[in-house]
Amino acid sequence: MFKGFYTVATGMVSQQRKTEIITNNMANANTPGFKSDQSTIRSFPDMLMSAVGRTNLPTENQLSFGQIQQIGSVNTGVYLQETLANYAQGSIYETSQNTDVALINGAMPTDEESGQVGAIFFRLEHPEGGEAYTRNGNFTLDGEGYLVNAQGLYVLSAEGERIQLPSDQFNLTQEGNILVNDQLAATLGVSFSANPNTLVKQDNGLYRQIDGTNLPSAFGQEGVTFSMQQSYLEGSNVDSAQSMTDLLTAYRAFEANQKVLQAYDKSMEKAVNEIGRI
C-alpha cells in the first residue's frame, strides 16, 4: 500500500509541474517572439514482484528447497522527463514602429543526429560575455544611438559588432541590410542553431548555448533561408485554445490522483484503527 502512496504522489507532482509550464505559456501568449514549452511525462521502470518461500518434502530427513513465485509487475510512478521549447514560427503582425523587426523563417534543415529542425535567432551581446539570442525583434535606439532590445542588450551585426545609427529613420531590406540615406550602415546579425535543444531558455525571451559557446552565423549556411520585415513583429506561437485544453486535462489528472490518494489514506486509517485493534 505504501508503494501506492509513492506512485500517486509522483503523478501529482508531474501534473503540477506540467500545469506550471502550461500557465507560463498562457501568460506569455502576447509576448513577441515567445516560444512555448512542451513537456514529456514518462513512467519509471516497472518492478517485478516475487514471493520467496520454502517447500518441505515428505521425506525422513525433512528436506526443503527454496521456491520463488512471481506475483506480477508493480508500477513505480511517473516523472516529467524533459521540457523542450517549440520553435515553430509565430504569427507576424504590423506595429508601425520603424525599429521593430520580424525574423521570418524560410527553409530550415533537419539535423541528422537529433532529428530536430534548425532555428534562427537575432544576435545580442550578453552582459556576462558571449552572445545571447532572441526571436523578439522589439528593438529601439539608446541614448548613444546603439540598437538595443527591450532589456537594453546591444543588437549585434553580422560581423558581431554593435550597431550604431544616427537616428531611427533607416530602411531595412529583407536580407537584413540597414540603409541610412541609401548607404549600407550594417547588416543585422542572425545566428543558426542546427539543434535548438542545445539552447537554454532564460528570462525575457533570451537563449544561450548550454556550453556557453556562440552559434554560427545563419548567413551562408547551406539549406537555410530567411527574411526580415521592418515595422513588424513575430508574435508568440502559443495556441491559447490548445493550452486551455491541456491545462484542464492536467488538472483532471491531478484531481484523479488526489482521489486515489484519499482512498489509500482511508484504507490505511482503517487498517490502523480497526484491524490493529483486533
TrEMBL record:
Residues 229-273 form the Flagellar basal-body/hook protein C-terminal domain. GO terms for biological process: bacterial-type flagellum-dependent swarming motility. Keywords: Bacterial flagellum. Residues 5-35 form the Flagellar basal body rod protein N-terminal domain. Pfam families: Flg_bb_rod (PF00460), Flg_bbr_C (PF06429), LlgE_F_G_D1 (PF22692). Belongs to the flagella basal body rod proteins family. This is Uncharacterized protein.
